[in-house]
Amino acid sequence: MLGSKHLHSELSYKRLEEGKFKLPRPREGAHTVELRASELAMILDGIDVSKLKRVPRYERPVRSGEEKSSGEKINTEIMMEGN
Predict the structure, then answer these.
(1) Longest C-alpha distance within the chain, in Å?
(2) Phi-psi region of 13 (alpha: psi -120 to 50; beta: other; left: phi over 0)
(3) pTM
(4) SS3 35
(5) Using CA atoms, how far apart are residues 74 and 76, in angstroms rounded to an integer?
């Protein structure tokens, strides 16, 4: 397995005693597959990630008159001593 991002490259090797890794298929017209670190760890542990279902992250319920949290800007005022 060869991984590369910007100027950093990595070569990893893992030998199975039996069986084989269940790798996801590339998208139509693609020659590579991009994985999250957690997905790679699951594949190396023998888990078929193609059968996993990601659940949506928790999002605070929107009250009437409020903007949806993904569109909100967070107020990040910094209080300085002496002001």
Answers:
(1) 67
(2) beta
(3) 0.46
(4) coil
(5) 6
| Triad 25, 55, 38: Cα angle to 5° | 55
Name residues whose C-beta falls within 8 Å of residue 35's C-beta, 6 or more positions apart in sequence.
Answer: 24, 43, 49
Contacts of 54 (CB under 8 A, 6+ apart): none
> Using one digit for the tens of pLDDT, what is the confidence trace for 43-55?
888 888 888 887 8
In this structure, are residues 60 and 69 in contact, taking their beta carbons and an 8 Å threshold? Answer: yes
Tokens of 38: 């957690």
**19 contacts 9 by C-beta, under 8 angstroms:** no
First-to-last alpha carbon distance for the chain, in angstroms, is 56
CA distances from 3 to 10, 13, 42, 57, 80 (A): 5, 11, 17, 28, 45
